[in-house]
Write a structure and sequence with these properties.
Elements: E1 17-24, E2 32-34, E3 52-59
Antiparallel strand pairs: 1-2, 1-3
């Protein structure tokens, strides 16, 4: 029997936060990445190599265990 740790339902958990992300400009590619996770000003898509454009996206909040 496999063990699946179930996440506890925490009412203080933020379901998502709107943040700026890089989104791939290719219509057949849905790749995106957080702006703060990329080190380039105008990154290329790591999957298809197309340009990426800054857009707003609701993403799960980053839980930083160091905080
Ligand atoms: Zn792409």
């Amino acid at each position: 029997m496999r063990y699946f740790p179930r996440p506890k339902k925490d009412p203080s958990l933020n379901p998502g936060v709107e943040t700026t992300v890089w989104a791939c400009t290719s219509r057949i590619c849905s790749c995106w990445m957080r702006v703060e996770m990329s080190f380039e000003h105008e990154p290329a898509c790591p999957l298809c190599g197309e340009w990426m454009t800054a857009t707003q996206k609701t993403v799960p909040k980053i839980i930083n265990p160091r905080f």
